[in-house]
Each structure stands twice: as C-alpha cells, then as structure tokens.
Hints:
Layout: H1 4-29, H2 35-59
Helix pairs in contact: 1-2
Amino acid sequence: xxxxxxxxxxxxxxxxxxxxxxxxxxxxxxxxxxxxxxxxxxxxxxxxxxxxxxxxxxxxx
Length: 61
C-alpha cells in the first residue's frame, strides 16, 4: 500500500529528473559538455522519467 508521502516523493523525483534534463541541455548549449555526452545523459534521464511516470500512474489506479 502506498501513501500520500510516497506519491509526493515520486512527484518531486519526476520534477527533479525534468530539471536535470533542462540543465543538461543548457550545459551542452553553453559548451560545458559535448553534444554526444548530453544526448547520452538525456536518453538515460528520459528513461528515468518514463519509469517514474509509469510508477506514478500505476500507484494512482
């Protein structure tokens, strides 16, 4: 059984993952990391976002 606290935690984690993706794009645009590295990290971040979204949907059923 999940609690509101778990839902809140997952929501915060999802927001943080989205924020990370934005920071990766900015880092690439400012030349701090290569396009290739940014893409690899964004791909991994997108995977985490998909997993969190799926878990949140499953818990809300």
